[in-house]
UniProtKB/TrEMBL annotation:
Enzyme class: lyase
Name of this chain's protein: GDP-mannose 4,6-dehydratase
Reactions catalysed according to its record: GDP-alpha-D-mannose = GDP-4-dehydro-alpha-D-rhamnose + H2O
Family membership: Belongs to the NAD(P)-dependent epimerase/dehydratase family. GDP-mannose 4,6-dehydratase subfamily.
EC number(s) recorded for this UniProt protein: 4.2.1.47
Signal peptide feature range: none
Binding-site list for NADP(+): 205
NCBIfam families in the cross-refs: gmd
Free-text function comment from the UniProt entry: Catalyzes the conversion of GDP-D-mannose to GDP-4-dehydro-6-deoxy-D-mannose.
InterPro entries for the chain: GDP_Man_deHydtase, NAD(P)-bd_dom, NAD(P)-bd_dom_sf
Keyword NADP attached: yes
Every NAD(P)-binding domain range: 5-326
Tagged with keyword NADP: yes
Length: 343
């Protein structure tokens, strides 16, 4: 039986990965930060099947201890300060976790079990001001946020340990991937939650930032399969994980509202753009400059040809199904909330 250690196990990716590894018969260990109130997050439903270890990405001693306890054959580093907007407000904390934290984890592996296989969650935000379209493993990086810069360090230190110590260390350059388990601070979940609330009459409208930003969106459940596949190969390497399709935030909004039978009609431009319910004329979407980034990433679209051919990676959930799943889930959650508040 293989042992796997997952950092960030209670996030959306960590939870889907834990489910996948449990299905494959792994003994799964998950790192959690100690809090005053225990929060299992997205792994609440499988917490009895996971061995939890208290540790922190900024504390190499605790990570070394986690490696000793788990004796992991595979380590998946998914822990991060992953909200781009927060990285401008907390640049040092972001660097400590997303950059130096990766080094801490690699050092823990090197000291305790150097033959263990390591996966690093890199990100399309490293491409930032894109140098070519679509982006591949060979596209030059140009990060546009403290988050992207910190993740770039994590990406390169993973490659450096692979080449310096002959460690089996891979990076998955994951483009935007969402799910029903995504946090509400992310724009996609903010949209689907708002759509559910507007449909059920408990919210008037939603305010968003740059409607023209283009992203390559897939489902987290598909993307964790690629993570696992990377660590099953004969040789370690880095892979772009994406759909090779890009859509604007505006298109995401339109698709989400369509799943509750509302057609959005746009008028105005820039900060004055609004989206109305075509049937009623009511304004449901507004632009708020407060949500603009200090340095915007305008376009991301990844070419997963290498992952498709080398890993045999297959995506099963389309963009429309992704949005439909998120909207349906939020409708159920908001309905429960309304029922609870009316008791």
């Amino acid at each position: 039986m293989k042992h796997a250690l997952i950092t960030g196990i209670n996030g959306q990716d960590g939870s889907y990965l834990a489910e996948l590894l449990l299905e494959k018969g792994y003994e799964v260990y998950g790192i959690m930060r100690r809090k005053s109130v225990v929060d299992y997050g997205n792994v609440e439903h499988i917490k009895d099947k996971i061995h939890f270890i208290y540790a922190d990405m900024t504390d190499v001693v605790s990570l070394t201890n986690a490696m000793k306890i788990s004796q992991a054959d595979e380590v998946y580093n998914l822990a991060a300060q992953s909200f781009v907007a927060t990285s401008w407000e907390q640049p040092l904390a972001t660097a400590q976790i997303d950059a130096l934290g990766v080094t801490n984890m690699l050092e823990a592996i090197r000291i305790v079990k150097p033959e263990a296989r390591f996966y690093q969650a890199s990100t399309s935000e490293m491409f930032g001001l894109v140098q070519e379209i679509p982006q591949t493993e060979k596209t030059p990086f140009y990060p546009r946020s403290p988050y992207g810069v910190a993740k770039l360090y994590g990406h390169w230190i993973t490659k450096n340990y692979r080449e310096s110590y002959n460690m089996f260390a891979c990076s998955g350059i994951l483009f935007n991937h969402e799910s029903e388990r995504r946090g509400k601070e992310f724009v996609t979940r903010k949209i689907t939650d708002a759509v559910a609330r507007i449909k059920l009459g408990v919210q008037d409208h939603v305010e968003l930032g740059n409607m023209d930003a283009k992203r390559d969106w897939g489902h987290s459940k598909d993307y964790v399969k690629a993570m696992w596949l990377m660590l099953q190969q004969d040789k370690p390497d880095d892979y772009v994980i994406a759909t090779n399709e890009t859509r604007t935030v505006r298109e995401f909004v339109e698709t989400a509202f369509k799943h509750v039978d509302i057609e959005i009609e746009w008028s105005g431009s820039g900060v004055d753009e609004i989206g109305k319910n075509k049937a009623t004329g009511k304004t449901l979407v507004k632009v708020n400059p407060a949500f603009f980034r200090p340095a915007e990433v305008e376009l991301l679209i990844g070419n997963p040809a290498k992952a498709d051919s080398t890993l045999g990676w297959v995506r099963e959930i389309s963009f429309s199904e992704l949005v439909e799943r998120m909207v349906k889930n939020d409708l159920e959650l908001v309905e429960k909330e309304i029922k609870y508040n009316n008791l």
